[in-house]
Amino acid sequence: MKLIYLALACVLLSGCGGEEFQDLHDFVKDSGVNLRGKIPPPPSIKLYEPFAYDNDKSLSDPFKPRKPEAASSMARGENEPDLNRPKESLEDFPLDSLKMVGYVYKAKVGYAVVRAPDQKLYQVKVGNYLGTNFGQIKKLSDTEIVIKEVVQDSTGDWSERLSSLQLLNEIKE
Fold it and tell me: What structural domains and CATH numbers belong to the chain?
């Protein structure tokens, strides 16, 4: 009986080994015949030429940032402040440490009252200087001081910016 089962299994297994996908195998085997791909030649190699920087004055220093060229026709240093003028007393204090505490009008001229960090009161008018950035008072009102400051940027150019001090509204008892 075992011999019959063994013979039957061999017959069944021999049926599975047919050439069912032979046409697919032949197509795959023949599809690459007579095909030659073209590979472009490798690019030519450029030899590296080292540059000798011998601190020539006509060349800029490669390790210092370059100044961007001015897009406008503004002359260099046009906004530069007068560094030789005598300093006023409020130029010793940073602008954010100064407080506007009042406004006085006398002899047809408006004066702002400013408290400095040393707790002294100062009267200032249009044209006076205050703050550490060459700030000049451009406009006064009873609630605000408008200041034009001149600051130097990282490239060494001077630029203007507007700042203001608002009237301090604190009530002390």
Answer: 91-166 (2.30.30.830)
- How many other C-beta atoms are found inside a 10 Å radius of the C-beta of residue 131? 21
Find where tokens 């006509």 sit: 58
Give the H/E segment covering residue 15.
Answer: helix 2-16
- The residues near 135 (Cβ < 8 Å, ≥ 6 apart) are 91, 95, 129, 147, 148, 149, 150, 163
Distances (CA, A) of 2 to 11, 96, 118: 14, 107, 116
Confidence of residue 112 (pLDDT cuts 50, 70, 90): very high
Nearest-angstrom CA–CA distance, 69 and 164: 31
**Tell me: the pLDDT tens digits for 67-78?**
655 444 444 467
- Return the DSSP state at 30: H
Average pLDDT over residues 6-35: 75
| b/e 144-169 (16+ beta carbons within 10 angstroms → b) | ebebbbbeeeeeebeeeeeeebebee
Cα dihedral sign, 68-72-75-78: negative
Return d(Cα 72, Cα 22) in angstroms, integer. Answer: 79
Please indicate whether residue 74 or residue 54 has the higher confidence score (pLDDT).
54
**What's the chain's average pLDDT?**
82
